[in-house]
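S.,

As promised, the magnesium ion run. Input:
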Amino acid sequence: MYRFTFILQEQFSVTDSNYKLFESLKHSSQIFQNEEVFEPSFIPECLLHRETELKTLVQHFKPIINRKPTALGTHVIIQGSVGLGKTTIVKQFGSTLEQYCREKQGEDIAQILFFYLNCRRQRSWSILFTTILRQLVPAFPVRGFSAAELLTYMCSIMKERNQKLLLCLDEIDYLVSKAQGQDILYALIRNNEGYLHENNSPLSLILITRSRQLYTYLDSALYSSLSKRMIIFHPYNATQLYDILLARAKNGLNLSTYSNEILKEIAIIAHTSGDARYALELLWRAAKVADSEHSKEILFEHVRKAQVSSFPIKQSLITDLPLHQKIVLFSITSILKRQNDTMYAFTGDVKRKYEKTCQNTGVSPRKQTQFWVYLQELHKIGLIKLEVINRHKKGKSLGRTGKVSISDLPVNELVEYLQKIIPEL
Ligand SMILES: Nc1ncnc2c1ncn2[C@@H]1O[C@H](COP(=O)(O)OP(=O)(O)OP(=O)(O)O)[C@@H](O)[C@H]1O
Ligand SMILES: [Mg+2]
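Predicted complex:
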């Protein structure tokens, strides 16, 4: 022990400023009352301005909860862009539903098990079903069954136990876009047809997606039946974001460290994307800057500094992109930079810029279909917003076009950053 201490003292000198750094750990924050409320895992008690969506969700599942005979279960799609409360609302709904069913046991209420899974974290459908099965039957083998077999087995267990399974698959696009992904989604949705004769389907679904492209994976009849139960989450406006920020500030920050003006400013900055996550993160970052400067309150300058520092969050996402997606993103950002005062670029212009950039850099450009896949991938991970327009003339399809925008990243810095990380440019 002594020897160890001696060696340390020999090798590293303890400076005053280093020592103070550790001393500062002892001082409690002037700004934060409870920083945990800004963590991604934090679930707020109530979701402001999502009352209608929650009511709609409850209404959709009313027949199941009340044990009404249902031939096809209930499948709901929730669609909306980044940070709109989709995941949070479903988690809240699921846990309240389970608790409600437990408490009403004995009354004529169904016993519903709620499972939430994020498809981005699942490498395959088989792994996803096995994860659920292992919770239902702890000794269930990890390998050895196909996804279709696992699905059938999962439903038969629920039938045997006379329970219902409500499965929420968040970011569903990740699994659907994989090999055979669409077939299993199809089987999952159609699975209940096996129970048609007894009007007692064991499985219901909540599918969450950011993109509007889910229909491209399903046949039109199936999609149109599903779309009757689609809940669209719209971006928050500045007033709604202000309310969300205020509620979180009351919870997490010391009183008098934030003003209405500061919260309004953050709400206005974030309202172009309508993204609550971004707004809350900006508030948290501004509070961190204020704290590190030992300020007694959050000032506008802290918000400005926070805005600049929020770009690195997405830098790692961009660095990890495959080369062609980087070039597509570069093409979008260079057009937006050049246009300066317009919010979006047309996909036709982006395609031309992409091809030109590929030629200039000696990379062979991919075909139209693949180019669209790149755009959709970038949209899916929230780096761009893609609005697809399907063109028709006299009932004939003229193909699709679209508009692309980037609302929450500084375009000039993005161009510079992409120029740095694409070696071919
Ligand atoms: N109405 C709201 N009231 C309070 N907090 C909210 C509200 N909507 C979103 N949030 C907060 O914003 C953050 C993002 O919400 P959530 O993760 O549910 O968004 P999402 O729509 O699932 O986004 P993504 O598509 O990126 O997964 C969370 O911290 C959540 O607590
Ligand atoms: Mg989510």
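The CA atoms of residues 235 and 414 lie 24 Å apart. The chain is about 50% helix and 10% strand.

- D.
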